[in-house]
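Appendix B. One record, verbatim.
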Amino acid sequence: MIVGFAQDADVPVMLAGVRDEFLARPWLPPDRHWPDRPGLVGGLDLQAGGTWLAVDPETSRAAALLNGRGVLARDEVRRSRGELPLLALTTGEPPAEPDLACYDPFHLVLAEVGGVRLWSWDGRRLTEDKPPEGVHVIVNGGRARGDGNPRAAHFRPLFAAAEAGGTGPAAEAGERRWRAWRELASGAGLAADDPRALIVRRDLGERGAWGSSSVTLLGLSPHGVRYEFCPRPGDPGAWYRVLG
């Protein structure tokens, strides 16, 4: 996941999210899937009923989930992490710490016009991070710092350049910035087996194929949410607009 935050920009927050999952796992594209939360829009995981990313258009708020690393929840109490983005959009917070033992490790991003918060649960301890202005890459190990992660080392400067290139008349700069983010979120031409790749695919034998099943691009501003979705990662022609 890549998050860009620039407080004074016309669109202060940009977010590109790639969902990596077993490709046979069933899902539905973004829509208003939750009758008890009719204002929320996101993709639906048909296996567990939750989501990997959802937005609240009324508040220009988005929440997204990545699997983390650490101690797994006990089988008898485990709950789906897919409910966490919906909870964060509704309450503005993750569950209280005593209840977190029901979840496997995760990273939960809550983005809104005023900034970004990141909560990380490793099965023992919950931490909160408030990334400063700039471009941040969040991977299964958390917010990548330095160049230790090949994907972050490759893509962070590219997305930062896309941010810096968004200057000039507001409308033109905004579209130029958006196109640059979408091109990078589409994989920027890297092969799926490249260690730097954003769009990936692995054959795990009897377990099946695992890889990038969809890509989301969001822009959050005081004027609303722009939401584009690609159900066929790596295919530039598959993008379509959900909101905005």
